[in-house]
Amino acid sequence: MSLSRRTAARSVRALGVAAASAALALGAAGHAFADDIDLFSASASCAGGKGVITVTDKDPSGASATVTVYLENNNADVRRVGDPQDVKGTAKGATISFAEDWEPNAVYRVHIEPLNADIKLLKTPAKACQADDTATPSSTPSGTPSATPSASPSESADTESPAPSEPSAGGEATPAPAGNDLQPAAQQSNLAETGASSNTGLIVGIAALLVVLGGGAVFFGLRRRGSGDR
After folding, report:
1. Which residues on adjacent β-strands are paired with residue 198?
2. Strand locations in the chain (E)
């Protein structure tokens, strides 16, 4: 019985030592991942015409880290970019961004805590993001002049189009009065053919006078006959 107890105690101790060793190995491995500054990287790019500094954390342990970015000049911090940001790394890479209108060939220092270490100094590209923004307005003035001349010919065409139409309308109007002038002449010719003219009244007056004179002659003739019979 004593041997079996001793054997069991030894077995338990061996298991405990093995478990402790495994725990220390796993902890050391996780710590090694968290302390590797090479798992962090930084880059400068443009987003929507504005500068952005992006930091990537590829720590598979998922340990939390605090990232701070500084603008450098002659190996000295000029100013801090924004506020420090926390990131939890992933195997694929977790990213955080700092808005910064960086200038070409500028240098930035990216500090990582709790590692208390810096990523390799970041140097921005030779072309700034503002160059893209200034290029876009150039297209706007080029579009406005093209629209202005295109509108002016159309307006001149609209204003000139009635000019030919007016003579045509005037040409059609001129024959109308000529036709109207010919109608009275035709009416006069018709009246001349039928004898209805201004001399008709004179002829009627002469005829009436002749009738009156004839009647008077007859009347005086009858009176003379009556007196001769007596």
Report:
1. none
2. 40-47, 50-57, 64-72, 77-88, 94-99, 107-113, 117-118, 122-123
Say which amino acid occupies 225: R
Q: 55 forms bridges with which residues in the sheet?
A: 42, 96
Instruction: Classify residue 112 by its DSSP letter.
Output: E
With a cut of 60, say whether residue 50 has pLDDT above it. yes
Q: What integer is the mean pLDDT of 155-171?
A: 47
Q: How confident is the model at residue 218 (pLDDT cuts 50, 70, 90)?
A: confident
pLDDT for 219 equals 78
Per residue in 122-138, pLDDT (tens digit) is 999 999 997 554 444 44
| CA proximity to 96, closest of 58, 124, 129, 56 | 56
Strand residues in 114-164 grouped as ranges (E):
117-118, 122-123
Q: What is the mean pLDDT of the chain?
A: 72
Domain annotation for the chain: domains and CATH numbers: 35-131 (2.60.40.10)
Print burial letters for 196-219: b (CB count within 10 Å at least 16), e (below 16): eeeeeeeeeeeeeeeeeeeeeeee
Neighbours of 159 (CB within 10 A): 9
